[in-house]
Every structure is written in structure tokens, then in C-alpha cells.
Amino acid sequence: MIDNPYQAPSAEILEEALAPFIPATRGRRLVAFLLDTLVVTLVWMLASELVALATGYRTPEPASSGDLARDLLGALATPVSAVDYMVGFVVWLLLQGALLHRRQQTLGKLVMGIRIVHAHGGRAGFLRIVLLRELPLWLVMLLPYGVLLAMLDPLAIFGRERRCLHDRVAGTRVAMAR
To answer: How confident is the model over 2-54, as pLDDT tens digits?
Structure first.
């Protein structure tokens, strides 16, 4: 065979979309969510403390009325601090970004052997995952009672399709990793 220096290089193309889609189990999704929440929250708390030490800014603490039910409703109705959530989103992106870009997995999903895919089963792009799947959840928490919606979102894995609300918004699903 004669090598043509002007010939375009060729490569084998693997069609991920043709691979069988095996939905992640509810248990794996739940454990992955809990692992991600734990890791991100711990690092977020540390980062928030470092920001407070460096800038002197601290998130204001709500005043207690002594009535637990009133205080809980008041906390849910109060939008969270935009500065604090900006720090949280940056922490989340630094912790999860590389894995999401390369493997469509968070740390918890990597440990549990699952990954995010497009609704049709193919590769879910990094921008789809971050801008359509994750960012809306972070932004909704800035609204009154938004924290309540964010807390209920993962419970949707117990539905027939095993898809959270953020999966439906972004057109994604969670599948077993190969």
C-alpha cells in the first residue's frame, strides 16, 4: 500500500448512541447524590470560611423567633445569599468539572459506576450538563422557597422513568457506566 501524504487521516468512529442504554438504579443514584452533596458541602463550607476570612463578608444569620415552625418557614422563604451560592457553584465546578467534561460523571457517580447521558442514550455534552442540568438548580435556590424545590428534585428518581426534574429540563438521563 502506498502512503499518500495528502490523504486525510482516518479513524475508527465509535457510535456511543448505539450502545445499549441501561438506566442507573435508584439506589446507585441516591448514594451518588448523597456522596456528591457531602463532598461539595464540606469543601463549600471551607471555601466560604476562607472567603469570610479574606474579605470579612459573612452570610447574615436569620434571627430566631423561638418558634421552630415559624423559623423553618421563614428560612425556606428567605432567598439564600447570592455570594454564598456563587462560592458554592465555583466549588462544585472545580470539584466536578473535569470529570463531567471527560467522563460525564461526578465524584459520586464515578464511585457508583453511573454517568450522565443524553436522553437518547448518547454522550451528554459538558455545556448541556452544566448550563441546562446543574446551573438552573443553583439559580432556583436564590428564589424564595427555591431550596424546597431543590430538596424535592432528587426524589423524582423514585418515579417510573428514574429521572430528576433537572434531567427532564436538560434532556438527560443517568445510565450505568460501561
So the answer is: 678 788 777 665 545 445 789 999 999 999 999 999 999 999 999 988 988 99
Q: 81: which 3 cell numbers? A: 445569599
Q: In sequence order, what are the residues at sequence separation of 6 or more whose Cβ sits closer than 8 angstroms to the Cβ of residue 156? A: 163, 164, 165, 167, 168
Kindly report the pTM of this predicted structure: 0.78
CB 173 within 8 A of CB 163: yes
Per residue in 78-101, pLDDT tens?
Answer: 767 788 888 889 999 999 999 999
Element (H, E) at 46: helix 26-55
Domain boundaries along the sequence of the chain: 23-56+82-176
Give 104-173 as a 3 state SS string: CCCHHHHHHCEEEEECCCCECCHHHHHHHHHHHHHHHCCCCCHHHHHHHHHHHHHCCCCCCHHHHHHCEE
DSSP character at residue 6 = T
- Partners of residue 176 on adjacent β-strands: 114
